């Protein structure tokens, strides 16, 4: 017995020593990295003569930026912060980019908001995604997804999925979207009867999940009407990702349940996809002979395009006959996850902000309804069947498109982050200053850029009319490279046309029959004059409307 106790005591010494070594290692590493980052920053004025904001060796720019952000609501989405920094330091911002050292909260960051400088690392050349993305998305997809793949792997998969986003294929998917939107309309009518204020973002998310389910999986998820296990697992998995403010992320990382939860949700998602994948492979194997002549096969979905590419890959011939190649299966599951996620979240928040902006801009709403009446006639109830017969009608709604674009200008849900490179400098078109990028994360900050008054006249106002200006000498004309909610260049959003088509269809089928009133209480905090601003609550990855967009719906009666 005594021997046993002695050995336990010995074990504890070992444990404590191990913990001590681990802590000491991390403390040493922290200060090593601190020195590395702060030296990188101090080099900017010293070696390159580029002025930076007041910088502290211990806190970097944390105190400087915190002072600027103290004037904003504390829950504002961090991705919006550069706009206020620009406004606080206009003389530093004038050249179009600013170094921001928020380490250890985020990697040392060169925030870029001049559109032509954004083009220098997103378009020509298009640099690889930042390390930060890998930390965030690794546990979700093992980075085998279209947003995170790089080089030839990315190129091949983009090629596989591109046909799914052709104008023709998207239009052929529209009738399936309409079925889901009809469910949404029914839901809104019930809400209108009850008169209650709801978080509009939630039914909007359920709708956009159902729509992307049709386009990616060719399946109905019924997330709008029933509990859906896949939706649940996806949302919870995203909740556990390292995308929050530092303290929340640290709490997640030390939570002993995290690995178990991640494993469970991962398995639930896979189990949901498996029968759909098997079915798609079975269908394509049996129809592969007729495929070349048969033109009556349905719209291309993400799952069917991947299956087709797999079955026609000669390198995999030997394995295909017995079982699905394991690596192909892993990649396909990752792709489906990213399409299901990227394909719903941003579209739903955009819809929420659009309805808020229409409520606060009644003349825009009136003009939009007038456009719908001129295209579909006075009876709103016929619009759905008209679109089903001729989906291309959705392409003759220039004002509706302008409203969506103006919403995305003011509330872009995400920006792109890239890894800076040795020998790559960004050149300011206005001052000629050359910004070194090695060691820096480059942030293409669409939010700041799209509200920067050096680029946009009436930058803070909601002016859909600017999108209709064709005359380049008109001050309202939108200049090249400036509109980047979907980013520009080879890594731009593959789903942008789908999102626009979907949003237009939803607007046509709801706005003439219903009134949407965003309901922020008296004295609600404002950002840039608006009570609706972007926040990122625990577990959210993109900018979401404050409070989930509280909304009351009413039926319009013979106005
Ligand atoms: C309003 C809605 C949307 C917005 C604002 C948006 C925005 C973006 C942005 C900014 C990127 C670049 C991300 C980066 O650089 O890391 C991106 C990429 C992507 N988006 Fe979207 N997106 C929307 C809708 C969609 C939809 C509906 C789908 C799916 C059908 C989708 C799928 C993707 C994919 C797969 C990528 C990666 C493309 C690649 O790297 O090849 N998105 N999106
Ligand atoms: C999640 O599932 C994929 C297959 O879908 C697998 O490759 C991966 O290892 C799983 N990850 C975790 C954390 O269980
Ligand atoms: C073409 O494909 C459709 C759908 O898979 C099928 O119903 C039809 O019988 C096929 N036609 C021919 C001629 O193979």
TrEMBL record:
Has the keyword ATP-binding been applied to this entry?
no
Binding positions for heme per the UniProt entry: 493
The record's section on Pfam families has: p450 (PF00067)
Record pathway: Secondary metabolite biosynthesis
What are the transmembrane regions? 12-32
InterPro entries the UniProt entry points to: Cyt_P450, Cyt_P450_E_grp-IV, Cyt_P450_sf, Cytochrome_P450_monoxygenase
Q: Which UniProt keywords apply?
A: Heme, Iron, Membrane, Metal-binding, Monooxygenase, Oxidoreductase, Transmembrane, Transmembrane helix
Q: Which cofactor does it need?
A: heme
Entry annotated with the keyword Cytoplasm: no
Which Gene Ontology molecular-function terms are recorded? heme binding; iron ion binding; monooxygenase activity; oxidoreductase activity, acting on paired donors, with incorporation or reduction of molecular oxygen
Question: Can you tell me which family this protein belongs to?
Answer: Belongs to the cytochrome P450 family.
The name on file for this protein is: Cytochrome P450
Annotated source species: Cercophora scortea
Source species taxonomy: Eukaryota, Fungi, Dikarya, Ascomycota, Pezizomycotina
